[in-house]
Amino acid sequence: MAFANYPKQEILLPVKGSFIVLSLIMALFLNLLPLKGVVLSLWPDFVALVVLYWCINQPQRVGMSTAFAMGLLMDIGNASTFGQHALAYVIMAFAALVFHRRLLVFGFLKQAPQIGLMLLIGQSVLLLTGLLDGSHFPGWNFFFASATGTLLWPLLSSLLRIPQRPRSDSDALS
Amino acid sequence: MEMAPQFFRQGPSLLARLVFFVLLSLLLMAVDTRFKYLFEIRQAFAVVIHPLQQLANVPATIYDTISEFFVSRQLADENVHLKHQYLADRGQLQQLRGLEAENAQLRKLLEAAQRLESKAVMAEILRVPRDPFSRKVILDKGSQSGIQPGQVVVDDVGVVGQITRNYPWLSEVTLITDKDHSVPVQVVRNGLRSVVSGTGRDGTLELRYLAMNMDIREGDMLVTSGIDGVYPPGLPVAVVSKIERNPTYVFAQVTCTPAAGVGHHRQLLILSLLAPAMENPPEAIEERPKSRKGEKIGVR
Asked: What number is the ipTM of this complex?
């Protein structure tokens, strides 16, 4: 079969707007947890991951403006320069929107490295703006968050996919 | 001109939107770092995010409550110890009161400016932001509790930092280790005045522009000199940990370790703003907040 290599495509239910908002709020909550030390440096940027997920799966509804607004909220929560996270998220969202059709061909596992690259771009933007503001280089473990974000992607995207799964109909013929 | 049907209309192109948002965020960053116009916008966003921050703090609070429950036996021992300590301190305090009264009397006699007693508000560290580029912590008291930018934050050992932004229920403290923060200090041993600056790294401060032949040694204690009118004099700031006198540089490289540790406690004290000293002429008082650039004491 010529199509044997493609992953089986499910027909998904439409996403509720309230679920998108809820997932973004949850991501913000996870980012704002008061953490310290090693856990903090390994803690992935959940807001970036969720914004990327919706940019890839619902590009008509979540785009750069959402990314920008979430970035501003993160800047407040993080007490960083106003606009720093917004810039990083907008650039990540742009990459996701450009590649969203290509990314959807792959399964979540194969998407992960590409998502990792986008997270890395986003963190590089953060680093660059930080350095331009006159900060010290925070050390290479700054990029660990991208790595954990990549590892988390398959799990997170399967979780976000759950409400869209078609419910099995009890009347259906098996 | 013919419009495309609704389904095909996608608004401005991706690239145009990218350029718009990138320019907007660059503008915001420039305005935020160079000028201080974004106060109201930040406030608005802070109101949105405040409930989430409170909620995010709930797990930590529950953890604290549970661990407090288990340490009650240690508390009994600690209580006994503290009672002894209290008695001992009480005695010393009596002596200190006497000295204070005597000092006040003497100062009055000398018609010297009285040192103002500073009031303090206790606050808890709500969270440490994950931003690796700035050294800040967020406290749980804000403008509703009368906290203003410029107030000094200390712990039981020494200076921690300064309030740089306040929200209704929160405030941001820039730690003395922040790269943009400087504190005027004095060496306890010989009264040498200088300015200690943050480096942006945890646990490191530096004394810049000290000439090679300055009398400073490792282990010297640095306290606030009070000449800035922001920090009350005599608060411990740092201990000199390393001095490099490299003849290729003009200045000695003096590294210090801050006295206070933010990582150790959750409770901090916010001191009230110092009232301008009496001998300052009125125009100097008027001028002072502007020269402080609204927040940090900029000694450049």
From this structure: 0.82
